[in-house]
Amino acid sequence: MSDISTGLSRLQFIKECVNRSLSVLVFLTLTPFANAEILEVSIKKMLFVPETITVNVGDVVRWVNHERRQYHSVWFETLGDPEPDYFFPGEFFEKRFLQAGSYAYRCGPHPEMIGTVVVLAQGNDISIEKNRLPQDRQAELEYLVRQDCGSCHGMTLKGGLGPSLLPESLKVFSVDDLSAVILEGRPGTPMPPWKGILNTEDASWIATYLKAGSGVQP
Ligand code: HEC
Ligand SMILES: [Cu+2]
User: Fold this and answer.
1) Ligand 2 centre and the CA of 67: distance in Å?
2) What percent of the residues of the chain are helix, what percent strand, and what percent coil, each to the nearest 5?
3) Is the separation of the CB atoms in 58 and 122 below 8 Å?
């Protein structure tokens, strides 16, 4: 299967399934991504939720159209991909990510609809496995980072009252260090403790999200 990283709309997918069932079988058997997963981004009210999704190399992202009647597309324009077909309510679009990196995308017909897929290298010390939270919780945390953390660390997290939380600035900290700061705060500074509303998993999800590049648009 040569084009495993190519997005397929559901219709194409069904058509091609018949031709490919054999090669898919071979692919699944030989895949180096034994733990590859399908992670979902839902599309509702003209938004990609969550806007930033973090996956491991080999994972598939599936965008599901949950609108009542609006069609959309998922276009990795910056990768030089051609504009893909629109997909309609109840349909989905999938893409497998084989290379670590941060990939911005947008909807073809609605350029203001944007999102990012962050693909972590295998063996990365940031283990996304231990950071899996339900999608709606991830969306809540993403919102918290922008609104609450952003109020002191800057709306683009470049720094304000508090220091920059961009990946470059956080390189020196481990996920565990950052989680501890988030939960306990820095006594004697304006950095408050968040353990009243965040648990350990939430804090390490945020730490991972910040270290991987939160996708907050500069
Ligand atoms: C009321 C303002 C305020 C809010 C809200 C806030 N911070 Fe902070 N934060 C600070 C300040 C000020 C510092 C620097 C503390 C110091 O001097 O050590 C800091 C430090 C940090 C550090 C350590 C970074 C470093 O380079 O030392 C991290 C990580 C951090 N904050 C994450 C967060 C996260 C995540 C949130 C949201 C859940 C958040 N902060 C919300 C003010 C805030
Ligand atoms: Cu759209």
Assistant:
1) 10
2) 35, 20, 45
3) yes
Q: Is the CB of residue 162 below 6 angstroms from any atom belonging to ligand 1?
A: yes
Domain 135-211 in the same topology as domain 38-120: no
pLDDT digits (tens, 9 = 90+) for 100-138: 888 999 999 999 999 999 888 765 545 454 456 887 888
Closest Cα partner for 167 from 207, 210, 124?
Answer: 210
Residues 6+ apart with CB under 8 A from 71: 65, 86, 87, 88, 89, 109
Q: Which CATH superfamily is domain 135-211 in?
A: Cytochrome c-like domain (1.10.760.10)
- Ligand 1 lined by 148 (C-beta under 6 Å): yes
Better pLDDT: 203 or 208: 203
Cβ atoms within 10 Å of 200's Cβ, excluding its own: 13
Q: Is the pLDDT of residue 22 over 80?
A: no
Q: Output the residue whose Cα is nearest ligand 1's atom 24.
A: 163
Please state, in angstroms and rounded to a whole number, the distance separating the CA atoms of residues 105 and 38.
Answer: 18
Specify the fold of 38-120: Immunoglobulin-like (2.60.40)
The two tokens of residue 64 are 């599901």
- Every domain of the chain and the residues it spans: 2-33, 38-120, 135-211
